[in-house]
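Hi R.,

As promised on Friday, here is the backbone we talked about, encoded as structure tokens. Could you run it through your design pipeline when you get a chance and send me back a sequence?
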């Protein structure tokens, strides 16, 4: 395992934040056989998860950083996400921000769209994946039946000519 990320790289969480997050983590699940390799420390796993989330890097790229293995970090991410750890971190962060700075609840906005495509319409035709509608289907396509051009071509077998 390479060690491209040094201990004081600025990407790891500070001690004061870890002291607030550590109590939120669930107890590790028991192994069915009772024995296994020791788990990666929770702080290393959280540092690896936050590195992936902050940089957008792929999970497998963690192996080159030396922070934590990608499989351990992703497994821990799934465990903690199912346990609601990240939701609780977010909730507590909002409460702390509201206490220190204050959230202006008088102005809220949401964005979204639930409309048809602006250039769609009857020219587009029906959706072929919708079973209730008729549309192009690979089974009945001319390409499936014959040639790429859509025209059916057959080779002549033999011509008999008389002189």
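Update: got your reply. Pasting your designed sequence below so it's all in one thread:
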């Amino acid at each position: 395992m390479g060690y491209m990320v040094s201990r004081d790289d600025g990407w790891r969480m500070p001690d004061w934040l870890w002291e607030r997050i550590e109590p939120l983590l669930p107890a590790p699940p028991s192994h069915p056989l009772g024995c296994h390799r020791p788990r990666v420390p929770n702080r290393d796993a959280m540092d690896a998860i936050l590195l992936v989330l902050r940089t957008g890097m792929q999970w497998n790229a963690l192996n080159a950083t030396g922070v934590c293995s990608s499989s351990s970090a992703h497994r821990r991410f799934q465990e903690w996400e199912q346990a609601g750890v990240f939701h609780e971190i977010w909730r507590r962060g909002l409460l702390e921000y509201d206490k220190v700075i204050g959230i202006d609840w008088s102005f809220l906005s949401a964005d979204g769209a639930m409309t048809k495509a602006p250039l769609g319409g009857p020219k587009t035709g029906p959706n072929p994946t919708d079973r209730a509608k008729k549309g192009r289907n690979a089974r009945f396509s001319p390409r499936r039946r014959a040639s790429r051009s859509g025209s059916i071509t057959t080779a002549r077998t033999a011509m008999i000519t008389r002189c």
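One thing I noticed while checking it: The chain is about 35% helix and 0% strand.

Thanks again,
M.
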